[in-house]
Queue: 3 jobs
Job 1
Amino acid sequence: MRRSDCLEAIYDELAGCAVVTIMGAVAVELYSLGHRPNFFYLEHAMGLASSMGLGIALSQPRRRVVVLDGDGSVLMNLGGLTTLARYAPGNLTHIVFDNQSLLSVGGFPTATATGSDLAGIARAAGIGNARTVTGLDEFKAAAVAAINASELACLVAKVEPVGPKSFHMDLHMLENRFEFQRALRPEGNSP
Amino acid sequence: MPVSERHSELVYDALVAAGVEVVSALPETWLVHLIRLAEDDPGVILVRLAKEEEGVGISAGAHLAGRKAAMLMQNHGLLQSVNGIVSLAQLYKIPLLMLVSDRGHLGEPDPWQTQGGAATRPILDALGIVTDELRDPETVQLQVSRAMTLAQASLAPVALLLTRDLMWEALA
C-alpha cells in the first residue's frame, strides 16, 4: 500500500476537516493532490502534529479534525498518545502512516521495523479504537468511518517506504499558517 | 503546604481576565493550587500533559482555532519544551504565554532544582523570549495582561517566571 494512494482515497473526505500533517512526504503528497486552506503542514516540531490536532479538536468540538502522522513522529511523542486518550475528543482522527523508516532523511529504519506496534501502543495508552490496516480498501473504509464517527480513533496504515521525488512545496510556512487560521474561523465571524 | 493559595488565585484570576480558555499543565509543587483552580473552572479547558512540549502543540492548535492558551510548567518543563518553542511557536509565529515556576534560586532547598534554575534565564535570553518575573502580588494582574497583549501582538512566546517571593507563603 502506498501512502499517496491512501491520501488520494480520503482526499474528498478531508474537504470539511481541519487537517494537520507532519513534514516530509506526507505533506508533499497531500499538497500535490491539491492544496486547500484547511490543510496545515507542520514542517518541523516532529511529534507535535497530534498535540496540535488535540488543541484544535478541544477548542472547536464541532469541527472534524484529522491528523496525518508518521511512525517517526509518533515515536518522538509516545506520551502524547496518553494525552489524546485522556481527553479523547470524538471529533479527532489520528491517522499514522507507518513506513517503518525515516524516509526523508536516508530511510533508516524506525523501531516499528523491529516490531514496535503503534496501534498496540495506542490501545495500551487508552485509545480504544486503534487498529492497523494494510490494504487500500480496508484503509479507505476505516478512515472514512473514523473521520465521520464521534469517537477518537487511531488508524495505523502500513505503507511502503516510498515518497515523492521532490520535497518542494510552493507555499511558505507562514502563508500556510495564516491561511489555515483563517479557514478555522467560525462561519460569519470575521476578524 | 506553604505554597500560597492567595497568590495562586491572583495569578489564576489574571489568566482568566486575560482571556485564557485553554490551560495545558504538568504539575509541580508550586503549581498545585493553580492547576486545581483550572480543574474546577468549567470555563477553562485544562489539558494535563505527559511531557511539557506537548503543551506547545496544544497551545498552537488552540491559537489557530481561535482560543487563547497558557502553559503552566516548572523551569525544567521549559527546558524540555525548547524544540517545540523554537520549531513550532517561533517558526510559525504562535503567541505562547508560558508561566514557569522559577525553581532553583535563593532559598531553594532541593539540590536537584539548582542546575535548572541557573540555566533558565540564559536559555530564555538565547531564544530571544521576552521574560518578566511575577514577584509582587500587586502587579500580577497587570503583568499577566500585558504579557498576553504582547504575545498576541508579536505572535511570539512570552515567559512569566513565577518567583519564590510570590508563590511561597512567608512563614510568620
Job 2
Amino acid sequence: MKPMRRDAVDSAVLRRRIRLVVLIHTAERAGLAPLPIMHLHMFAYLSNALAPVWEMPVMDGKLLKRRGGPFYPVLQEDLDSLVGMGVATISNLGHVQDEQNRWRLEGSYRLNQEFADRILLQMAQFEEERRLFAFLQELAYALSSLSDDDFGHATTQDATYSDPVIDFGNVVDFAEWQVKNYTANAADQFERRLPGGARANSGEKLHLYLRHLQSRIHGRQ
Amino acid sequence: MVDSEVKGLTSLGGWANADFNGTALQNVGIGTDTDLPPAVRFIAGVAKLVRRRMATEGYKSDPIRPAIFLLEPAARTHKPDTKPQRIPMLDNGLTAVTGRLWFVNPVVVSGNYVEVDDLNDDALFKIVTEALQLGGTAAIVFDPRTSLPAVRYYPNGLADPDTVESIAITSSDISLDRIFDVIDRVYSTCLVTPEAQTRVGKLWTKGENWWPSEHAEDLIQMHLRVGLTTAFPTCTVRHEQTIVPGRLDLEIEESDPLDRSLVTRYAVLELKVLRNFRTSGASVSRQEVLDWVESGVKQAAAYRKDRNARAAALCCFDMRKDHSGEHCFDHIHTLASELLVKLRVWFIFGTSEQYREFVSKMQNR
C-alpha cells in the first residue's frame, strides 16, 4: 500500500475537524449544548449512519461496538486538539474508566464563538459544506426530542448498532466493506408510510427515525 | 428474497417487524419544512404546539397567564435559585405552556422553560429585555386571557413591541381564495419586479431581455412556501412530492391537533412559469406555452384526485414579454372548468421600468 501524502493527511484531518465544529455548532443551535462526550459521539455516529437519507457521503462507515455506545478515538483526538486550539471549550470535567479499564476524559463541550465563527463563516462559502450543515442541523433538531436518558439508551435500540449478529468488541460496518445500513434503510421506510399517501422528505425521515427510536427505547414498539 | 434485500439495500435487521406506520401516523409533518428560514419554522412550530395544547383536556387547568417563546435554544433564568427545566418532546402537547418563558429551537420539538410569576405585561417584557438581555431575540407571545386567545409574533424581539404580527392558530377552512390572497401578497412583496426579489434569489438572468433564471420556478416555489406557511402556520405545506401521476408542486394540508393522522388536504397547486425565452436566450414557441398551460390543468386535476384534496389550482407566473393577463387560459377554460381546476396568473416584470410603464398604461385606460 502506498503511504498517504502529507497534504492528503492534512486535508483529511481538516475535514474531520470542520465536521466536528459543525456537529457542536448545530447541537448548540438545537439546544443540546453543552454536549456531553458520549452524546457527541452518538451524534457523530448517527450523522454517519443517516447520511444516505440526505444523500450525503458517509464519513466513517464502521466503528467498534462498545457496551457504552459509539466512541470514535480519532474524533476524540480531534476534539482534544480543538480544545487545545481554543476552538472548543470543555466543562464539567472529570475522568471515567471505559469497559477496557482505560481512563478517558469526561466532560461537556461547546464552541468558543470567537474562533469557531470564523471557521463557520469560511465553511458557508462552499455548497458541499452548506449541505453538510443543513443535514447536521436537522439531525440535531431531531435529536433534541430525546431526553438525556434516551440518549444513553439510543444505541441499544438503533437499527444498526443494536444488530444482535454483531457482538460487543466486533466491528459494526455499515458503509465500508458492507452496504447493510439498517438505520438509513429504516429511515427511508418512512417515505411512503404517511397518512393519505403523502411522501416524507429527508427532514421528515430524520425526525421519524428518531421518534421511532425513542418509542423503542420506551418499549412502545 | 429480492436482490436488493440480499445486498442489504433495504434490509432492516432487528427492525424488520417494526411498526413504521404507527410512528408515521403519530408524528406526521415534523421536519417537513426543513429548508424554510428559521423564523418561519419558529412561527409554524409554536402555532402547531399551542393549537395542540389548547385541544387537550389538560389545557383547561393550565395557568391563565401568557406564555413567551424565545427563538433562543440556550436557556437561562432571571431567578438565581432556579434552573431551566428541559422538555424533550414539547410538541406532543402534554406539557402546559402558559405561565412560562420558553427557550426553543426553530422546530419547537423540544424546549427549556422557566416559570414566570403572575406579573403584568410590562414586567414580563422587562424580564426578557432587561434581566435576560434578550430584547432583540425573535419572540412569540401566547395570551390565553382574552376571549379569543391571541398569538403575537415579534420578529425584532420584545424590545421592539410595535413591530408585531398576529398569528392564526384556530383551524379554519382554507379556501383557494384565501390561498390566492396569500400568493397576491407574496407576489407584490417578493416577485413583481427584480427590486422586490432578494439579491440571492433573482428570477431573471437578463430581465431587460426577458430571459428568466434557470432557478425561477424553484425560487417562486420557495417564496410561496414561506408565504403560505406563515399565513397558515398550523398547516403543513408539502412540496415536490413524487406521486403516481407525476411531481406535485405544492400541497397544503392540516392535521387534527390531537390525532395527527387525521389530515385535511385543502389544496394542491401546480405552478408554471410562462416564458418567451430560455435561460440561454433561446426562444420558446407560442405552442409550447399553450401546451404547458394545458398540461398544468391536467396535472392539477390528477393530483387533486390522487391526494383526495378539496381543491386544485393552476398558478401561472408569466415571465413573457407581453402581458396578456388571463388570456393565457383562453384555450383551456372549458377543460379547467370540467376538471374543477381554478386558474390564476401573476405577471412578473423584467425591470422596474417595465412595471412603471405597465402601471401608467393601466391608469390611462
Job 3
Amino acid sequence: MSVFWLILVVLAIGAAGFFVGRSKALSTAGGDSRGLHSMPTYYGSNVFMKSVVPAFAVMSIWLIAQPLVVQNQVSQMIPESEIAEGSNKGLVMAEVRRTAEGLSNAVAAGVMTEDMARSARAEFTDMTQRLRDAGQIVTNRITQTVLSAAQQYRISMARGAMWMSVLTVLVGVAGAFWGYAESNKEFRARNVVEKGVMGILIACASIAILTTVGIILSLVGNTFAFFRLYPAHEFFFLLEWAPSFSGRGGASSLGIIPLLWGTLYISFVALLVAVPIGLFAAIYLSEYASSTVRGIAKPLLEVLAGIPTIVYGLFALLTVGPLLMSVFGPDTVGWMQGQRAVLTAGVAMGIMLIPFVSSLSDDIINAVPQAMRDGSYGLGATKSETIKQVILPAALPGIVGAILLAASRAIGETMIVVLGAGAAARLSLNPFEAMTTVTAKIVSQLTGDSDFASPEALVAFALGMTLFLITLGLNVFALYIVRKYREQYE
Amino acid sequence: MADVSIDTASAPRPKRTSLTEEDARTRKRNAAEKRFQYYGIAAIATGLFFLVTLVWAILSNGLPAFQQAIVEVEYTLTQEDYDKAESALLKTGVYTDHFVAFLHQEMNDRGVELDFDKAAVERLLGKVGGDIRAFYRENENLLGQPVTFELAAASRVDRYLKGTFERDDLQEGNRFFMPGDFDLIDAMADAGLVTQAFNWNFITGVDTGVDNPGGAGIGASVLGSFFMMIVVLLLALPIGVAASIYLEEFAPKNRFTDFIEVNISNLAAVPSIVFGILGLAVFIQFAHLPQSAPLVGGLVLTLMTLPTIIISTRASLKAVPPSIRDAALGVGASKMQAVFHHVLPLAMPGILTGTIIGLAQALGETAPLLLIGMVGFVARYPDTFLEGFVEPNSAMPAQIYNWAARSDAVFTEKAWGGIIILLLFLVTMNIIAIILRRRFERRW
C-alpha cells in the first residue's frame, strides 16, 4: 500500500470516527445538544484528532527510521573485502539501492517474476544483463554480494512498508476507539480539542527552528566530513582553486580565498551601482517628489525587485555582457576578453539591488521625525542642506543597515553570477576579467553529482557553511543597527 | 525675556543689498539645491531606464520564439501517384521526389526560377516525404483533391528570415545547411510560400536534445512548476497560517517565542542556495526522496516561502482590531473560537494576498532547484496526476537556465521566450493579489 493510500485510509478512519463520536455524544445527552458540555462538533473533532494525529506520527517516524535501520542491517552484509580499491561503503550501498530499485522496476515492467527477483543468484543468472535488458541502468557488474544485499534490502523494505501500514491503521483505529469511549455528555471535549489545536499551532511555529537546525546540521555534518578528507588550513588559506575531476586522480587545490575575493568584488561592483542610484532615488521620492510622481515611480522601481534572478542572469549574459564588450572589447580599447566578467555580473546585480536599497532607505528617511526638518528649515537651511546636514546624518545608521542587507543579498546571489561571472577562479583586480564566486562554485560542484564521498563534492558544503555564516552575520548585524536606530526615534 | 544686545561695532557689516536681489552666496546655495534635485531625478530616471531596457531586451529577444516560419503549399496527390509510391521500395523517397517536383512546378508558376535538389528541401523542411505519406495513409479519401500542407521550417530558416542568422554566419562544411539553401529560402519567400505562424509547440512541447533546438518547448516544465506550486500551497499556507496564529495570538512573551521570531527573520534572509543545500542533504541524501522530483522542489520552496508567508500573515492578523476579539470573548467564545471564527476570516484576504506573492517568489526561484537536480535532462509529461509529483521533471526557471547554458542561438531565443511565459505567470499572480487586496481589504 503506498503512502498516499495509507493517508487516505487514515483520513477515512478519522472521518468515520468524527461522525460516530458526534452522534454518540449527542445520544448520551438524549439528542439534545444543550445537555452536552461542548458543542457536538467538538466531540467528533476529538475522535478525529485522536485517531489521525497519532497515526500520522507513527507513519512519519517509521518513514524516517525505516531506511536507516534497513541500510544499517544491509550494510553489515557487505564484508570489507568486497569494497574495491578507491571505493567506499557508501558507494557500494548506493549500488545496492540502485540494484534493488532496478529489480523492483523489472518486476513492475513484467520482465522478471517476483520469485526470480527475490532468489536469483549471480552465479547462475546473468543479472547484470537481465537488468540491462529490462531497461535499467546498471553501472558495474553486479556481484553476488551486491545482489544478495539488494535482495535483502528489497525484502526488508517491503516487509517494513507492510508493517508500517498495519501499525498505522491499528493506531488510527485504536485512537478512534479511545475518542469514542470518551464521548459522553460529561466529557469536556472543547478543552481537549483546543489543547490539541494549540499543540499543532506550536508545532507549526517550531518548523522555523527545525529548518534552521536542519540547515546547520546538514552544513556542519558534511563540512566535518570534508575536513576529514581535506586539510582545513588549506581550505582557508590556499590561494588557488583547482578541483581535479573525480576519477582522474591527482590532488585538488580547494582554497576558498579566490572564491571569496570574486564574491566580494562582484558584490562591491553591485553596490557601487545600486547604492548611489537607490539612495538618491529614495531621497528624491521621500523629500521632493509630489505624491503623483511617488505613486508612479515607486511601484515601477519595485517591479525590478519582483523579477526573478534568472532573468537578471540572462540579461547579464546576453545583454550587459555584449554591451560591455562593444565598449571595452577588443574592437575598441581591448580591456575585456570575454562577455563574462566581474563587471557584467556586478552591473546586473546592481540593477537588481536598486529597489532593495531605495525602499529600505525610503522607510528609514521617512522615519526621521518631521521636527528635525522643521528645525533646520527654521534656521534658514535649504532643502538639500537639510537633507545633507540633518536628515542623512540622523538616518545614517539605518542606511548603513540597509546597505549591509543589500550586501548580504549580493553575496548570496546565485543565478546572476552562475550565468554572468564566469567559471575560472582568479585573484585579480581587473574588473574586466572573469571571476567566480562561492555560490557559483556550490552549484558547479553539486549539480548532477549524487556521490557525496569525494572532497570535490563535499567542499560545496564547506562553501555553503561559509556563505551561511557570512550572510547570517551581516543580517544579524544589520537588523541590530536598524532596530537600534528605530528605537532612537520612537 | 532679557534684551538681546548685538555687538554691532565689532562685526563688519556686509554690504546691504535688496532682499529681493540674490547675492552670490544665495545663488550658489540655490544652484546646489537644484543640482541635488537633479541628482535625484537622474537616479530615478536611471532606475526606470534599466527597467525599460530589461523589458525591451526580454520582449525583443523573446517574442520571436513564439513565431515559426511555415511553408504553406496547396498540394495534390493523385490516386495513381499514391499507388505508385506505395508499391515502391523506398516509399517516403518517392513521396519526397513527387513533392520536390511539385514545388519546382509551383514556384515556376509563380514566376520564380531556381534549381534545387531533394536534399536541400529535406534540409529546410525536414523529412517531407514521411509527413506526406503519414497524412495520406490516414486520409485516403483526400487523394486527388488539393490539400493545404503547412510544413514547419528548420530553426535556421526561421532565424535567417528573422535576420538573426546571416549568410556570413554560416561555417564551412556545415552538413545541416549549405550556402545554396539561402537562395532557396529567398525563392520560396519570393513565391509567397513562406508564412509566419504562432509556435504552439513552444508552449505545449517538451525540451529536446541539443540536436533539435527548433522543436524545444516549455510545456512539461510549466507542469513541473505547477506541481511544485501545489506542494508549496498545500504545505506553506496551512503551516504558515498556524505558525502566525500562534505567534500573534497565543504566544507568551518568553525565550522560546523570541527564539522562533529570531529564526523566522533570519530564515527570510538566508540565501536561496543554502535552502538548496538543505534540500539536497535532508530530502535526498538522508530521506532518499526521488531526485529531480517536483515533490522535493516543492518541499524546499515551502521552507523558503514560509518566512514570507508568516511575516505577511502576522501583519494582516495584527490589522484586525482588538475590539473584534473582545466582542467574541464577551459573548462567551473561547480564545480559540474567537481567533478561528472571527479574526481569521477577517484576515483572510490579507493572508491570501501574502500567500500569492510568496508563491510568485517561489515560482521564479532557480538556485535551489539546480542543487536538487531539476536540470540537465529532457523532461517529459507525467502519465498520471500522482506521478507528476515524483517523476523527474524540470521547472520553468530551471528549464530557462538549461537553455541559456547551451551555446546554440536558437536555445537562447527559447530562453528569452521562456522568460516571457514565466513573467506572464508572475504578472497574473501579482494582479490577482492586487485585485484581492483592492476588493477585500478593510480599513478599520
